[in-house]
Amino acid sequence: MEQRLSLVTLGVADLRRARAFYTHGLGWVEAQPSNESVVFYQLGGIVLGLYGREALATDAGLDAEGSGFRGAALAYNTRTREEVDGVLSEAERAGGTLVKPAEDVFWGGYSGYFSDPDGHLWEVAWNPFATLDDAGNFFISAD
Amino acid sequence: MEQRLSLVTLGVADLRRARAFYTHGLGWVEAQPSNESVVFYQLGGIVLGLYGREALATDAGLDAEGSGFRGAALAYNTRTREEVDGVLSEAERAGGTLVKPAEDVFWGGYSGYFSDPDGHLWEVAWNPFATLDDAGNFFISAD
Questions:
Q1: How far out from the chain centre does Cα A25 lie?
Q2: Is the Cβ pair B1, A27 closer than 8 Å?
Q3: In sequence order, what DSSP letters do the residues of B73-142 get, joined into one string?
Q4: Exposure string for A16-52, b = 16+ CB within 10 A, e = fewer
Q5: Yes or no: is domain B71-143 CATH 3.30.565.10?
Q6: End-to-end C-alpha distance for chain B, whole angstroms
Q7: Model pLDDT for residues B41-63, shown as the tens digit of each residue
Q8: Same fold, A1-64 and A71-143
Q9: CA-CA distance, A121 to B68, in Å (whole number)?
Q10: Strands A72-77 and A121-126
Q11: Could you tell me which of B65, B63, B64, B35 has the C-alpha nearest to residue B49?
Q12: In what order do the strands lie in the sheet with B46-52?
């Protein structure tokens, strides 16, 4: 198994609402195979997919019941400390929910959280020890 | 907000067990800032992090209680159809659980699912319509 991730699929209760958030709210461009059942966004070398939550559970042969904390978070790292508050505000205006306003955090960065309309958790963080290149690739080791 | 994802953090109950799965079982190389509290893997231009589930919830100001389906899946796309079964077997040998054996799926690919020791869901898929480059970047549009 190579060391990589190809796709992150977020299960959504209402694809039109989720699409409104990511496509119209955040302004992300949908990849070509998107349709009424599934929406894809090309994010650098990986893909984010939006797909019905029930359909996703069925695809894996699992029961779709679930509640509470999902035990995972996505993160969007900013290029500057100043950007963090603006991104959180943008996500709120797009239909997301502010989960935690940004603050200075113990590891030396500045971060806050929002959730998308289906409750998927996104951290928005500035990490002065990591590297973000012009293309948006994120490298955790500063060197 | 640019169109990108920087990091995926998986909350884990036991970091040593999770590390045993990804580092020793799958053979992934930890990035330099990993320590006893958090482990990072550089996956192309994004990063996968393993962090205590309780600590992750606390970081977002949320209650850590949660159960059932988490509403999301990660996916590892293979270069060939033949690889899929081997990757699922490798994940099982590493301490993961086979959730669904691979089968031909309606969209024309071949896919199955495993979960890691904390129940995080991974699809292993071959998608004949997508592109996987030598560096492991995945592009959903075939062109």
A1: 13
A2: yes
A3: EEEEE-SSTTHHHHHHHHHHHTT-EEEEEEEE-TTS-EEEEEE-TT--EEEEEE-TTSEE-TT--EESS-
A4: eebbebbbebbebeebebbeeebbbbbbbbbbbbbbb
A5: no
A6: 26
A7: 999 999 999 999 999 999 999 99
A8: yes
A9: 17
A10: parallel
A11: B35
A12: A97-104, A110-115, A121-126, A72-77, B7-12, B46-52, B38-43
Q: Phi then psi for B60, rounded to 5 degrees?
A: -90, 0
Look at A113 and B61 and tell me if their CB atoms are within 8 Å.
Answer: yes
pTM of the model: 0.96
Residue at token pair 């970081």: B59
Question: B15: part of which helix (H) or strand (E)?
Answer: helix B15-19
* Inter-chain touch B43–A5, beta carbons under 8 Å: yes
Task: State both tokens at B104.
Answer: 């031909």
Strands A7-12, A46-52: pairing kind: parallel
Spatial CA neighbour of A72 closest among B69, B93, B17, B92: B69
Alpha-carbon gap: A17 to the closest alpha carbon of chain B (Å): 16
Tokens of A97: 């929910």
For residue A143, pLDDT over 80 is answered with no
In chain A, domain spans? 1-64, 71-143
From the list B3, B32, B45, which residue is nearest A138 (CB)?
Answer: B45
A106-125 burial code (b ≥16 CB/10 A, e <16): eeebbbbbbbbbbbbbbbbb
Average pLDDT over chain A, rounded to an integer:
96
Cα B5 to Cα A41, A74, A137, distances in angstroms: 11, 7, 9
Domain spanning A1-64, CATH class = alpha beta
Note whether A36 and A77 are within 8 A (CB): no
